[in-house]
From TrEMBL:
UniProt-recorded Gene Ontology molecular function terms: deoxyribodipyrimidine photo-lyase activity; DNA binding; FAD binding
Biased amino acid composition, Polar residues: 190-203
Keywords: Chromophore, FAD, Flavoprotein, Lyase
Identification of the protein by name: Deoxyribodipyrimidine photo-lyase type I
Annotated site residue numbers, Electron transfer via tryptophanyl radical: W313, W366, W389
Highest taxon in the source lineage: Archaea
GO BP annotations, alphabetical order: nucleobase-containing compound metabolic process; response to stress
Family membership: Belongs to the DNA photolyase family.
Domain Photolyase/cryptochrome alpha/beta residue range list: 1-128
PANTHER family: CRYPTOCHROME, CRYPTOCHROME CIRCADIAN CLOCK 5 ISOFORM X1
Binding, FAD: 227, 239-243, 279, 282-289, 379-381
Cofactor(s) it depends on: FAD
Length: 480
């Protein structure tokens, strides 16, 4: 008998760990999940709400097979050995995590199981190519994505794995899942921090295996063929929105990749095939950042690339609060921050812009932005989030050079020319023209008052702040 420990792989289909558990010992598998207080300490109500939904979905999937998902509460290093003993398991199997937190938890759990004479097996599942398998000639991992991508692209990919049958699973019956409140979280609500008079409602995605597969199927039927052309246009909504599913593991990466390969086979033109490749390239970014984090767990809090001197980050609670609330007076930035509050998700191009705005225009430490994203994103993934923030702050691998500062006005004009996306999320600007929106920084106060009286004036002058940021980064680089 084996125990299978679900963590961020909340699915039965295409789950390499679960498939391994079925074969590891004689007898059926007992699937379990643990609400670990050390992990929950780093969570937020929005993410725990997604977690509970994914767990309910997984439990239903097991029940359709006359089995169940057992849940326990407590430190993993206590709960997993307890569950193993209750079910007289010889082996506990789980899928690897790549953060420092996961590594600490797994070390403690492995030690406790081994003390009890129970074997442990771990399997790589969340990514195609595990850390250490794609390396430069010297070193553990690539720091430049383009080199990583070439090797990743050419490596053979694994096929999806078959799910267990009812006969592979133990006929157990579990307790109900705890509620959000029992876990110490409040019901998530949208815009709890905005100063806006609007009453925003939170629109969270459905986080289940079925929803993930529907999303993958519809994306690969159509949007994937315009991905490269439109992925930077937030109003086009042309990206897959699979991040929340990849975060919680409600879909397996092999299944995603196989669907993209089928889309390539169906493609009729080279342009369509190029769009499929462009999407696969983004999947490779996810693996690149997982490798970087696995070898550099300290980069959750420390700069990846050192500067000679400390970067003189500013401590400005009012500007930070305006950024969080989407009240900076820079329309594209505010639209993104409000999309985050309303949906727990933000378009990638806009994530880049809001992160650049915080770290360059406001010169506020990227860790403040990371912390806010960590609490508000449904798809928060330590590796991708740290990677994205350090890229924007010019402290990461392959980062944006510090002297290339995004101009939020020209970026807004380029990627949201008709201001469609901005108007959707910033209702105060609903009646303003695209020119007025993109020219907001240059409008006279009386014109702003006439066009959109409820919308704030820009909190900073971009040109001045750009100069100041470049000077601050140059000082941080000085050697003497
Ligand atoms: P698609 O464009 O459809 O891409 C498909 C998948 O590829 C994504 O689901 C994701 O798994 C992966 N991917 C795409 N772009 C990137 C990227 N730049 N880096 C790493 N993986 C990528 N992504 C997260 O999954 N979690 C995060 O916490 C996160 N934080 C970010 C913070 C900042 C500051 C920035 C700039 C980016 C961040 N990203 C994060 C990357 C990216 O914004 C999201 O993956 C993407 O917007 C998710 O939407 P999608 O699934 O529609 O993406």
């Amino acid at each position: 008998m084996a125990v299978y420990w679900h963590r961020r792989d909340l699915r039965g289909v295409d789950n390499r760990g679960l498939a391994r558990a079925v074969t590891v010992d004689d007898g059926p598998v007992v699937p379990v999940f643990v609400f670990d207080p050390t992990v929950l300490e780093h969570a937020s109500s929005i993410r725990v709400a997604c977690l509970l939904e994914a767990l309910e979905g997984l439990r239903a999937w097991y029940r359709e097979r006359d089995a169940d998902l057992l849940v326990a509460r407590g430190e993993s290093s206590d709960a997993i050995p307890r569950l193993a003993a209750e079910h007289e398991a010889e082996t506990v199997v789980w899928c690897e995590g790549y953060s420092g937190l996961a590594a600490d938890r797994d070390r403690a759990t492995t030690a406790a199981l081994e003390d009890d004479g129970v074997s442990c097996e771990t399997v790589h599942d969340a990514i195609h190519h595990e850390p250490g398998s794609i390396t430069p000639n010297e070193g553990d991992h690539y720091s430049v994505f383009s080199y990583f991508w070439k090797k990743w692209r050419d490596r053979e990919k694994r096929d999806p794995v078959a799910p267990p049958t009812a006969n592979d699973l133990a006929t157990v019956s579990g307790e109900p899942l705890p509620s959000l409140t029992e876990l110490g979280f409040e019901k998530p609500n949208a815009g709890s921090t905005t100063n806006s008079d609007q009453e925003p409602t939170l629109q969270l995605p459905t986080v289940t295996q079925d929803a993930a597969r529907d999303r993958l199927e519809s994306f690969c039927a159509d949007d994937i063929y315009r991905y490269e052309d439109e992925r930077d246009v937030p109003a086009a909504d042309a990206t897959s929105r699979l991040s929340v599913h990849l975060k919680w593991g409600t879909i397996g990466i092999r299944e995603v990749y196989a669907a993209t390969e089928r889309a390539r086979e169906r493609a009729e033109t080279d342009d369509q095939r190029a769009n499929v490749t462009a999407f696969q390239r983004q999947l490779a970014w996810r693996e690149f950042y997982a490798h970087v984090l696995a070898f550099n767990p300290e980069t959750v809090t420390e700069n990846f690339s050192g500067y000679e001197n400390e970067i003189p980050w500013r401590n400005d609670p009012d500007e930070l609060a305006a950024w969080k609330a989407g009240e900076t007076g820079f329309p594209i930035v505010d639209a993104g921050m409000r999309q985050l509050l309303a949906e727990g998700w933000m378009h990638n191009r806009v994530r880049m812009l809001v992160a650049a705005f915080l770290t360059k225009d406001l010169l506020i430490d990227w860790r403040e932005g990371y912390d806010w994203f960590r609490r508000t994103l449904v798809d928060h993934d330590t590796a991708n989030d740290v990677g994205g923030w350090q890229w924007a702050a010019s402290t990461g691998t392959d980062a944006q050079p510090y002297f290339r500062v995004f101009n939020p006005t020209t970026q807004g004009r380029e990627y949201d020319p008709d201001a469609e996306y901005i108007r959707e999320y910033v209702p105060e600007l609903a009646d303003a023209s695209a020119d007025e929106i993109h020219g907001w920084q240059d409008l006279e106060p009386a014109d702003r008052e006439r066009v959109a009286p409820a919308y704030p004036a820009p909190i900073v002058d971009h040109a001045d702040r750009r100069e100041e940021a470049i000077e601050a980064f140059e000082r941080a680089r000085e050697t003497s």
